[in-house]
Each structure stands twice: as C-alpha cells, then as structure tokens.
Amino acid sequence: MIDVKLLRENPEPFYDSARKRGFGKAEIDKFFTLDKQWRSILKEVNDLRKDRNAYSLRISELIKKKEPVDEIKNLVRKTNASIAEKEEIQKKVEDEREEVLSLIPNVLHDSVYEAKGDENNQFIRFDGKALVYKDDLKEFLSQTLNTGSYDISQTKPVSHVDLEEKLDIVDLERAAKISGSRFYFLKNRLLKLELALINYGIDFLSARGFTTVSPPFMMNYDPLSKATDIETFKESLYKLENDDLYLISTSEHPIAAMLKDEILDEIELPIRVAGLSPCFRREAGAHGKDTKGIFRVHHFYKVEQFVFCKPEHSWDFHEELTHNTEDLLRSLNIPFRVVSVCSGELSRLNAKKYDIEAWYPSQGKFREVASSSNNTDFQARSLNIRYRTKDGNRFVHTINNTGLATTRIMVCIMENFQTAGGGIKIPNALIPYTGFDEIN
C-alpha cells in the first residue's frame, strides 16, 4: 500500500508510475474523489460533535439554574442520531477508499524502462560460458548484446524431457494418472539432486548471514492479500474449500507476513531470512506453455531470500540479493544473464525488479530462474511492519529474491551438463551433497 500523505501532497509521481505500467489513472482519480468525500463527512461529524458538546454544557448550566432541559436533551438525541448516521456513511466511504488505495501501484524507480512486454526488458549483464547450438548463435548473441561467452555445439543438446525418460528419473504419466497434468514423480538420482540443491542453497545463504526458516505452507486470506498483489496471484492460488486457507505459491509471502503489525527496534535491522518451502501454483493462463517435462509445474521447492531493512539501505540490499543468486548460479557453472524488468511487466508492489535468466541449450533461449524485487515500503505498509526511531516509527522496506527454484535449476543442469555417454554431470559444488558425480 502506498503512503497516503505522499499521494495527497505530491500525486504526480503516482500518476506517472501508473501510466508507465499501463494502469491508467482511474484508481487514483477515484481515490481523490472518495478522499474528498470522506474528509467532507468527517468535517460534518466534527461539527456535530462540537454542537453536542455545546448542548451538554448548556444542559449543565440549566441544571444548575434548575431550569427545564428537555428541549436541549432532545437536541442532543437528534445530534447523536445524526452523528451515528454520518459515521456509518463515512465508514462505507473509508472502506471503499481503502480498497481503491490498495489498487494504486508503487512508485517506480527512476531507472525502470518504460515499455510493455518481456522482450523490452533491459539487458544488464551476462556471466558464464554457454553451450550454444550453431543454429541458436544469432539469438544468443542478440540476447546478450554480443557480450556472451560461448562454445559452439554442432549437434543440438538433448531436451530434458527426453533425458528424463531415457534415464528413468521422472515419471509424468503416472503422476498425471493420479493428479493431472503438470505433476510428476521424481525418481532415483534426480530426487537426490533436488535434495542436494535444497541443502546447498540453504548452506550458501546461511554462510551469508541469513536466518533459515521453513514457513507455514498455508496462509489466511488477510495476511496473504497484504503480502502480495492479490489481483496478480489470485488465479495461481490453490484454496482449501472449507477453510480460509490458501496454499502458498512462494515462501516470500509468509516470511513477509511473519512480522505483521510488529514494531521492531532499530538495532534489529536488517533482518535477512532464507525460506525453504514447497510452492503451489495453478499456472492458470499457461495452457500450452511448457506442457512437457518439469520446467513449468504445479508444485516445486524453492529457497527464497528476504530482507527487512531501513529505507536508506533498501537499494543496496536489492543489489546484494541479486548478486547472491548470481554467485550461486556461478558456483554451479550455470550461464545466465540479468535483465531489468520494464515498467509494464512489474506487479503493483515492485518499485524495480531484476530477472535472472539461465541459458537452456536445447531450448536455445534464456529462461527465468529467479526474480529480485524491491518493494520499498509498499508491502510493509500493507502489513503494518515498522521500526522505532528517535523521530517516531517508520515503515521498513522489503526486498525479496529467489535463491533457487529446484525444478528449473534441475532442468538447467540436465541441459547444460550432458556427457558424451548420454548422462548428466553433476556440478562440482553439488557432489559433496549428492554423493555421486553423474546421473546415468
């Protein structure tokens, strides 16, 4: 939620951000209409209260003089009825104003490029050495602005879908039989690889000062709606039919909400949290996209990074969390690029977001494996998370970024580390966690 005081004092940045996102100005205009109405009713209520106070003083004076007070008491009753009526109207207007306020997006960082469509995300950097099939070289160079380092492959790398079947490490058919599409059984050494990735990711972030948690896997609607852009996520959520509970789509949301309505001591900040959880996503709207294999699925594990910090430090932490994921991918020898997401592809919460995209040789393209978002004070205002200062309480800033999402990283390893014998080489950093160096 945005700062109402700032919106009233300086609405132009909010109008500008909404326009750049393609949201238009309707919500902001409606807010000001409702806000004006609310303040007008508030003035009427305050005037009526003044009248009531004056009547009460007059009653006291009349009682002292032993004069009749019935007429004044009748005015008090009428005034109380008018106040109650006005307050009821005021509450309805206030609730509608708050609902509209929740739809007004965060103010964009000045560096965010104004455009719509993922193809307009701005390239920042490339890292690693990619295996590029000869027919995909032009696309690879285009996507790295001719900065990408690569080795040419004369033959197209095997798809992870074919490897899963050949090596007997995923069973999609039997999973579909009992759960439907986009579910899977992980088998044998691929299951061990997933466990290795989870443990490696947790150890990696623990070494960088993160407190590790496993959050609740379900959330009530109220904290969930305050922790996320609920309009964006609504179609992806699984709801428990007879309870006010939703399966989480990322541990970002329960981690953000765990400090809901708390006031922290300044010395407690920053708070770094790494969360491990399953993620449940309906993938509504993804029909026909990545229907084979385990790249886009309804359930996967993710290690998430999250930071609560002072406002003056949030942009430094945004870079820090981004670099953490880059360092993790670099340690696994996975080639990747970083892009700054354009204005039209950001959620209402984001002031700025980077996507970290790994190279998938058999697909011949970069695919997102992590997103690093600075939500400034937007998320914290909705969740009412503050910290004490000598000048009063202030809202914290919140930053989040994927550490690693297991299925997408496993697919990336399957495509980037194929052996001449048709197996999959395990990245060196993971061998102590898997206990083997190849899946064959």
Could you provide a short overview of the structure?
By secondary structure, the protein is α+β, with helices and mostly antiparallel strands.
List the helices and strands and how they pair.
Layout: H1 4-9, H2 12-21, H3 26-64, H4 70-101, E1 122-127, E2 129-133, H5 137-143, E3 149-153, H6 160-166, E4 170-171, H7 172-179, E5 185-186, H8 188-206, E6 211-213, E7 218-219, H9 221-227, H10 230-233, E8 238-239, E9 246-247, H11 252-257, E10 263-264, E11 271-280, E12 299-309, H12 314-331, E13 336-340, E14 352-360, E15 365-374, H13 378-383, E16 386-389, E17 392-395, E18 397-405, H14 406-416, E19 424-425, H15 431-434, E20 438-439
Parallel strand pairs: 2-3, 6-11, 10-16
Antiparallel strand pairs: 1-13, 4-5, 7-9, 8-9, 11-12, 12-18, 13-14, 14-15, 15-18, 16-17, 19-20
Helix pairs in contact: 3-4, 8-14
Structural description of this entry:
This protein has 440 residues and is of the alpha+beta class. The chain folds into two domains: 4-101, Helix Hairpins, CATH 1.10.287.40; 118-439, Bira Bifunctional Protein, Domain 2 (BirA Bifunctional Protein, domain 2, 2-Layer Sandwich). The chain has helices spanning 4-9, 12-21, 26-64, 70-101, 137-143, 160-166, 172-179, 188-206, 221-227, 230-233, 252-257, 314-331, 378-383, 406-416, 431-434, and strands at residues 122-127, 129-133, 149-153, 170-171, 185-186, 211-213, 218-219, 238-239, 246-247, 263-264, 271-280, 299-309, 336-340, 352-360, 365-374, 386-389, 392-395, 397-405, 424-425, 438-439. The strands form six sheets. An eight-stranded mixed β-sheet has the order 1-13-14-15-18-12-11-6. A three-stranded antiparallel β-sheet has the order 7-9-8. A three-stranded mixed β-sheet has the order 10-16-17, with no helix packed on it. A hairpin with a 4-residue loop joins strand 14 and strand 15 (365-374). The protein is elongated, with a radius of gyration of 28 Å. The model has no long low-confidence stretch (mean pLDDT 95).
